[in-house]
Design a protein that fits this description.
Shape: globular
Order of helices and strands: EHHEEHEE
Structural class: alpha+beta
Oligomer: single chain
Radius of gyration: 16 Å
C-alpha cells in the first residue's frame, strides 16, 4: 500500500491587539516568511502592502482602535503559495458596495483605496460573508 500523497504546509498565527504598534510584529512575520521561502522582491512588496492595508483596516474600521479587541493573522504556507487571513472582531462591512476609487470625482480623495489595492496586488482576494475577514493569496 502506497502512502497517501498529502501536501503539508506550515501555519503561522498572530493574535494582535488593535493598536498601530502591533503592525511591527506583522511586518516581522512577513519578512521571516519571505526570507524562509525565498519570496521574490515583487511578491514581498505586494504582500507587505496588502497586509499593512488589511491590518490597518481591521484595527481602525473593524475594531475601532479598541486595544481589547484582537486582529487574528494566519499565514498558511504551502508548496507554491501563501494564504494570509486577517480577521477582526468588528461587525464587518459590505465589500461589494464601495465607491470606485478610480472614478474622476474620487481621485482627489485621501482614503477609500484599501480594498482596491488588495484586489489588484494579491493573486486572489476573498472576503467572508460578513466582511470582517479577508483571505489574500500570493503565488511564491
Amino acid at each position: 500500500m502506497e502512502p497517501a500523497n498529502v501536501q503539508t504546509g506550515e501555519l503561522y498565527t498572530l493574535q494582535l491587539p488593535s493598536k498601530y504598534e502591533s503592525i511591527t510584529l506583522l511586518e516581522n512575520l512577513i519578512e521571516a516568511i519571505a526570507d524562509k521561502y525565498q519570496v521574490s522582491e515583487d511578491t514581498f512588496a505586494n504582500m507587505m502592502t496588502c497586509l499593512n492595508e488589511a491590518f490597518i483596516n481591521a484595527i481602525v474600521h473593524g475594531n475601532k482602535l479598541d486595544a481589547n479587541k484582537l486582529v487574528i493573522v494566519n499565514a498558511d504556507v504551502e508548496h507554491k503559495r501563501i494564504v494570509w487571513t486577517i480577521t477582526d472582531e468588528g461587525p464587518g462591512f459590505n465589500y461589494n458596495d464601495l465607491p470606485d476609487p478610480t472614478a474622476p470625482d474620487r481621485l482627489e480623495e485621501l482614503t477609500g483605496r484599501g480594498v482596491f489595492i488588495l484586489k489588484h496586488l494579491a493573486d486572489q482576494c476573498i472576503f467572508n460573508a460578513s466582511g470582517n475577514e479577508v483571505e489574500l493569496h500570493f503565488k511564491i
